[in-house]
Amino acid sequence: MKNRELQELERVLGEAVPAGLSALDPASIKKLCGALQHARKAQRAQMAAATESSLQHVPFLLRGAVKKVLGIK
Amino acid sequence: MSTLQHRAEMQRLARLLGPHTAGLTYLEAVDLATLKQLRERSTAMLYDADREALQRIANAARLLPSAIAALIAEKALGPLLCARIAGLLVVDTAIDIAKRLPPPFLAQVCLELDPRRAKAVIDGVPLARVIAVSLELARRGEFITMGRFVDILDTEVLLAVIDKLRDNGALLQIAFFAEDRVRLNRIIERLPAPRFGGIIDAALENDGELWPEALGLITELNVRWRRRFGEIALTRDADSIAHIIAISDAQQLWPALLPIADAVDNEQAVHCLHAVLRKQKPALLKRMLAAVDVHGSRMLDKLAELDWPATLRATMAAAANTRQASALR
After folding, report:
1. Which residues contact B137 (CB under 8 A, 6 or more apart)?
2. From chain B, which residues contact A within 8 Å (Cβ)?
3. Which of A39, A67, B171, B260 could cross-link with A72 by S-S, CB 3.0 to 4.6 Å?
4. What is the per-residue pLDDT for B2?
5. B-chain residues within 8 Å CB-CB of A15?
6. B214-230: per-residue pLDDT in tens?
């Protein structure tokens, strides 16, 4: 049971889980996993919103080039 | 002290993971080293997770005049993304943009930044701007973040900031949260003399609110600076020394206080401490001596040779005998 939670945490972190965390109970590991995933999602959402709104500040003539670099169609 | 460092590490992690992680209480039992590892790995996860997209934004910034890039940074990207992108920009571009951003916004960026990932940029920001941002962070009480910058800023820059930051309580807290103690010793070596006394004064204000931080910091310094701080503290007036003893006793800080007292060579300081301890209740002395039994103390050997009132003589003699017996074993 706990191994499954630790594997999920390792997947989210993208590298080995610090050894000291293996002492946590499964529910706490799950909470930590959730906090990390939430932070990633929040960062991604913020980035998407910022990419869109940043174009409004770019001079019209430069927008095409900036869109191209940002990968926006 | 480890409790304070633990609290600081929890706050660093909470800052990194965002406001929705207010309840990290389930990590309170996790040791400090593990928390640090978790923060390092979480930082890497967040910086690397969207690296391609972040790099694209950084590349786009190169196409724009710095004035427009700075406008976008402030009005559209916001402090979190600016912090993530800072280390991915061409250094000169990043510096040019940073020069155009107002200090309050840069202070917000600092809160989200892993300074080690943007050291080249930080090193290129003009001194006046670094000072302005530092003062803004201090005004907001962001000492944990400032402590992280102590670990990477150039010593001369730090000294210039310290010169402008007149609040010794703030200085004490920033130093407490800095992780690189070697660097801290180097900075303290060049600290103007009045700041040493000022730091002790600040630590004792508000009934010793910052005294645990002060002890936590001083205990980890080289013996030379422990002696300096110890002698400044123990050559103050009797009421101040009694205050130091009362606070240290009430907060069970003897293990942190003893190594500082042990570094003291100044005879006047030993006599001042002795004069105050003579007036303490036997119960307090017993608690101090219990800490000495566990942690040892050179200062006790010096104190034991001095004259004690009858009520305390037996306690001091018993402690000295116990120490002699353990030394012989």
Report:
1. B107, B110, B111, B145, B146
2. 16-18, 20-21, 23-24, 26-27, 29-31, 33-34, 37-38, 41-42, 44-46, 48-50, 53-54, 56-57, 59-60, 63-64, 68, 71-72, 75-78, 80-81, 84
3. A67
4. 57
5. 41, 44-45
6. 998 998 899 999 999 99
- B107, two tokens: 């202070």
Residue B258 makes CB contacts below 8 A (sequence gap 6+) with B291, B292, B295, B296, B297, B299
Nearest to A39 among B27, B46, B77 (CB): B46
Q: List the single residue in A with minimal CA-CA distance to B18.
A: A39
| C-alpha–C-alpha distance, residues B242 and B234, integer Å | 10
Please check whether residue B76 is in contact with residue A50, taking contact to mean a CB–CB distance below 8 angstroms: yes
Q: What's chain B's Rg over C-alpha atoms?
A: 24
Enumerate the residues of chain A whose CB falls inside 8 A of the CB of residue B63. 62, 65-66, 69
In B94-168, DSSP assigns E strands to none
DSSP label at B315?
H
CA separation for the pair A7, A16 (Å, rounded)? 9
Angle separating helix axes A26-54 and B78-86, nearest 10 degrees: 90
Q: Tens digit of pLDDT for each residue in B271-284?
A: 999 999 999 988 99
Please give the Cα distance from B61 to B70 (Å, whole number).
9
Give the closest of A28, A50, A71 to B81, CB-based.
A50
Q: How far apart are CA B86 and CA B113, in angstroms?
A: 8
Q: What is the ipTM of this complex?
A: 0.86
Max CA-CA distance within chain A? 57
Beta carbons of B25 and A8 less than 8 angstroms apart = no
pLDDT number for residue B247: 94
- Residue in A with minimal Cα distance to B43: A13
